[in-house]
Amino acid sequence: MATVKEKTLDCSQLDKIMGVPLTTWKLRDPIAKNDIRRWAQAMHYPNRLHYDDDYAAYGRYGTLVAPQSFTIAAAEGHGACPAGVGNVPDSHLLFGGDEWWFYGRRLFAGDTIVHEKIPFDYVLKETKFAGPTCFQRGDNNYYLEDGTPFAKQRSTSIRYNPMFAQEMAPMDNDTPPAWTDEELDAIEKRKLGYINMMHALGHNRRYWDDIQVGDELPERVFGPHSIASFTTEWRGYMMNIWGSAFRNEDCDPVKLGYVGPMAGWEMDPNEERVNPENSDGAYIGPSRGHLFKRWAQFIGMPREYGYGASMGAWIIDYLAGWAGEWGQVVHCNSQYRGPAFVGDITVQTGEVVEKSVDEEGRNLIHIRSKMETQDGTIMATATAEVELPTR
After folding, report:
1. Which of 75, 112, 137, 330 is most buried (most C-beta within 10 Å)?
2. 250 pLDDT tier (thresholds 50, 70, 90)
3. What is the number of domains present in the chain?
4. Is 181 part of any domain?
């Protein structure tokens, strides 16, 4: 068996594509209210502003507004495309993190999103997970159809040889935890803490003046995760809906170097016209490891696991829900340490570490946040700046 030092990952082709824009992408139809509702439901985010017409009618916008995290619901490859393009032979890909900038324009039913993708950079490192591993970044610029920019996402992918990960990764964590009825009841009660906070704030403002360094955000809990919940998440991404977008061939898994049975082409514009079940990402191709244990273990995961892009959405939703409808996340930098596995719960916490007024005059709250499982295993960490109104 090869030692880690003898293992290699060929990233030489990536130099040719850095800074070269990919095909601009967009959905065929404008955003609809049910797209917004479906996304809030898929992300386990019961903020009434995003699904309850009667409630939203009395709010700041007078109608349903999309969560800030909704941007990736209408993007190609949930923003991973420019961070995963280029041929790396015998490879697979996991989502490793996101950095977001939001420019203030919110999304509503009737808007059309245009998605621009540009590979940014990459670096090759040795990891305990899979030996030689490529950390590749790509920029996603999001515009309205009239050219108005409203967000930027710099995504990070982790590209590695799944055979190396199979050899190095422990597979003894392949059984989900068993929860008693009493434990599940306690989880449901914990969920209400964050939900009740949003209800208590309602349409009111959370003021910058009232926040102090050291303040802790309320705990947010959801789960236990399941194949059913992961499937619901996947169906919340509009790119996965049959016929929903103008497809292109930028991210053909075969051309990207994916390994054998994981190289079935998701979003294949040709296969979509024949048997779309083969192209929507749930059953065939690189993403099926999320929903099938056999394919999770094929790429070095012990059991079915959640989507990195969803973790990024959970972080943004957590911060935005605390900020309320008169606040907004203006910047968030997240690093993903490990996925949500079937059977685990997700616990989010945050702490105020600084207050500032930036050069644009925005009153910002700086927050350090983390996401962990029921046993304290870190899933993700993030730093963010949230703009709040002043008195």
Report:
1. 75
2. confident
3. 1
4. no
